[in-house]
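# step 3/5: fold
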Amino acid sequence: MGGYERERASMVERQVRGRGVRDPRILAAMMRLPRERFLAPADAAIAYEDIPLPIGHGQTATPPRLVAFMAEALDLSEHETALEVGGGSGYAAAVLADLCRQVSVVERIDALADHCKTVFHQLGIGNIDVHCGDGREGWQRRAPFDGILISMTVAEIPQALLSQLALGGRLVAPVGAHPSGQELVRITRTGEDSFIREDIADIRYVAPLDGSERTQDPPPDASPSRPLRLVERRPLTDLSAVNLIAAHGEAAAGPETIDIRPLLDRIGDARIVLIGEATHGTHEFYALRARISRALIAERGFDFVAAEADWPDAARIDHYVRHKDAVSAEWTAFARFPTWMWRNEETRDFADWLHSWNKEREPHRRAGFHGLDLYSLYLSVEQVLDHLDTVDPDLASVARRRYACLTPWETDPAAYGHAALTGAYRDCEQDVLSVLADLLRSRSAWQAMAEGAFFDAERNARLVASAERYYRTMYYGSRASWNLRDTHMFETLESLLEHYGPRARGIVWAHNSHLGDSAATEMSARGEFNIGRLSRARWGSKVYSIGFGTDHGQVAAANDWGGPLQYKTIRPAHPQSYERLFHLSNQPCLLLPMRKGKAEVREHLSSPRLERAIGVIYRPESERFSHYFEADLPRQFDEYVWIDETSPVRPLGTRVRDGVPDTYPFGL
């Protein structure tokens, strides 16, 4: 391959297939269509980048991956017809033309409508008609349509377009008035006046249906639940904030020498301490988090650590640190991608310390280590069945028949989510809920059989129920899947506190995006919440949250989901980010108290800025769009840990068990 064919193939593999689109017809269409022909010649070299590109008249071309998501959500067959509202560059209509019999396009701007006609003619695409008019009115003369794609944002779906859907027809549109994000919505017509709405993806689209380019900021007294202002509209750096950070931050030469005594005093009698991380692969974050946790356990009596890890994997660590007799298993803990996230020397060092510290304590006073996450669908199924085989073989047989619904998808649960979403396969919700119900009905009879065994089985059964629903909702990365995952993690945290007793205190290890209060970030504008928000609502001031940040260095991460570990260089922070302010303080490491710190520090940091988030995937080339979000730091965290230059975690070797599935690629 040469020229743009190479870029096209990379785009299809990384942006489209790599983000979960499975329809081979869409992949083939996008592999065939020369996207550079739909754009201005000056933009040909970047035609396959994952960014919106200008097409004149105040409009932009939709990034290819969003075109693919929307086309797949329409689920067109070769005999059906489609309407696209907002033709733009013409690329999306050309993709649809490969999927169905006929495409009609309504474009309100004369010049863009003419452009579409020209490029379709040049490429020999004969099954598309273009009409210049108001897209909100559709194209009544060509109706009804089996699929309608609105390639513009709308505050609400125009009634005229709904009326032009055929019975069983689907309409897909980005819905939402705020520029920070929209919901990709699919509406299916089920009767003359009946429609079903599905919220299937969170996206950032480009322009509203009426063509207006003006957006409104929220009022200056915006509450925590309102969307935040657009950061890039404030191009200046607040040097007074930089000076206050330097003056009031508790600085040290490095994280290993920082004095954590004042931090412990500020934590005080908090029942839950949320300790974050700005990446999933930074040595200094893991090491300092472990150091703080050791002090909380040894000196303040905390009972457990709950990590952003799968329950059965973390149980292997818990058995070790609490000196529990456990049956050996054939599978290796933390053996699936991303193995380095928990299978590293930093986690092992903490586990060894906790094992040693627990050794001299009574079993009921030993601190535990648990997982909050829900990706271990099939390992948790095995754990439930193993438990039932021991306590009730007859019920184990029933559970096997019910869990068999999930068996065809063991190596690829995302494929189950897609099959259930499209109706190609029935969902397994009732089957897995029935197993959980049977387990709970037998609680009193089994709890006395083995200390902690029933609790472990119950958590695994609940995980299976949550994971089954998660894989059905996560296929396009919607807010529903994010909220379901964080709700599961929060409910697991609640269960741990109940299990350890009324005076129990717990520590949570997870990414900043899960632990900082989501109401103080742009997540709230997208309808998302997290553990931090749920914990604040549940325990109020008894929660103390600690965030982490860095400017530059290296991080352990991958280019793509399932890709090999790389040591990637972190780009210096964005000029309008909180990280930039802390970097300008010229402090290599510091703690900045905000809840119990100086009011003037909170005041100067309270204007929303960008904040960086790096998960297990890091793409420096698209960092602004891939790894930054808006936040109000003093409302997001009670304390902020700054480490200017960071290094990667130190992974341990592993053997991956055959058949252990990968997990969903978009979550942190």
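# step 4/5: annotate
DSSP finds 24 helices and 22 strands in the chain.
# step 5/5: archive (pending)
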